Amino acid sequence: MDHSSHNPEPSSTHPAFRTPMGDIVVFAGERAPFRPSALDQLADGTAVIAAGLATGVRVHGTPDTPSLTFILTNPQGQETYAAIDIDTYDEVFGVVVEKTKVHVRGICRRPFEDGPPYIQVTDVEPLFG
């Protein structure tokens, strides 16, 4: 089956920040069963699980303090930013590369009151198939 023709259209972006709105549906909560919720409706610090295509992968920082950001887009075209900091970077190095499918666990972060949320990634695995 040819998947190359399935490129989800990006969702709307926040006009002030030109970043994804965080409208991706994630599974949220501290314990199973997790509930499906839009990321932009969750409180800062809520545990989340999501999956999708990683694009816009960028490495930041220095060799001593690396970090990584990417856009996570699900098959419905909903998207958010995801960030990996130095605490997780070494564990996931090489897993998140451009146009790979990934499954992430993390925490909803809302750094600005009127800005979009993002996922602070604590664990990531490749998705095959």
How many angstroms does the end-to-end distance come to? 10 Å
Estimate the helix proportion, in percent: under 10%
Described by strand count, sense and barrel closure, the largest sheet is: 5 strands, mixed, barrel
Please mark out the parts with pLDDT under 50 across 5 or more consecutive residues, or reply none.
Answer: 1-18
Helix tally equals: 1
Strand content range: over 45%
* Strand adjacency order, main sheet: 5-6-7-9-8
Instruction: Note the overall shape.
Output: globular
Task: Please name the defining characteristics of this protein.
5-stranded mixed barrel, 129 residues, mainly beta, disordered N terminus, 1 helix, 5% helix, 9 strands, two-stranded antiparallel ribbon
Describe the structure in your own words:
The structure is a single chain. The chain has 129 residues and is mostly beta strands. It contains one helix and nine strands. The strands form two sheets. A five-stranded mixed beta barrel has the order 5-6-7-9-8. A two-stranded antiparallel ribbon has the order 1-2. The N and C termini lie close together (10 Å). The N terminus is likely disordered.
Condensed summary:
By secondary structure, the chain is mostly beta strands. The chain has one helix at 86-92, and strands at 13-14, 19-20, 25-28, 35-38, 47-61, 66-73, 79-84, 100-109, 118-126. The chain has a 5-stranded mixed barrel.
